[in-house]
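Hey, sorry for the delay on this. The queue was backed up all week. Below are the sequences that define the complex (chains, strands and the ligand SMILES where applicable).
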Amino acid sequence: MAKWKITCIQYDIAFGDPEKNYEAIEARIERAMEDKPNILVLPELWTTGYDLTRLGEIAEDQASRTKSFLSEMARKHGVHLVGGSTAKSTPQGVFNTMLVYDREGRLCSEYDKAHLFQLMDEHLHLNTGTEKGLFELDHVRSAGVVCYDIRFPEWIRAHMSDGAEVLFVVAEWPIERLDHWRALLMARAIENQCWVVACNRIGSDPDHDFAGHSTIIDPWGEVIAEANETDEFLTAEIDTLAVQETRGHIPVFSDRRPELYR
Ligand SMILES: O=C(O)CCC(=O)C(=O)O
């Protein structure tokens, strides 16, 4: 069980300009720490944005720079860092990889986005991950997924069946489907009776306008905090005890009939 103050860093990501993006995120991490959160959450592909055609040039070999940067930030500030995702170049191709560090700067999770979003050409430039994004912070089991992954309830349920209590979502979700963003996050919280902490970006790139509206939802489905479409920090305090309380109240997990779900 844990009580955490969590801050999502919602901002605009420079298109295909890692140098600018490292500078921007470092300054925001410094500022966000003034409020002393226990966990910071960053958005999807924050080093490159959706400049997918130039990934050959700008994706990092094994995500090495992002990894040392996030580890150092987590250790320096003594904060758990759900470090958004980064374009990771490997001999098998490029992955959209979510990285999580604990406050000692130790890598807790390296999750490759499992579902690629064809509407934004991801399938042409990226490879699919095959492993779950489970990790523990302060002994609380959590799951981390990337953007389009939230459209796959069975994928999220697989994490929850493995004991996750908090779902972290990092995203670059376009504004034209803001209604879907809200409904899907809400549904994942209610059906899994878990906390949902979702960090999205704002701004535009040459092809998309992004929604912002980073959101924190409790296991009953109440929106505890929701950002606007501006450059802002979204902060809320969460108590993971609410997960056991909600699951005790309506025993969805023990009422499941997996033998019927084929
Ligand atoms: O599912 C959607 O509508 C948006 C997904 C997306 O933007 C992404 O996965 O990057």
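The chain has eight helices and 13 strands.

I'll add it to the shared folder too.

S.
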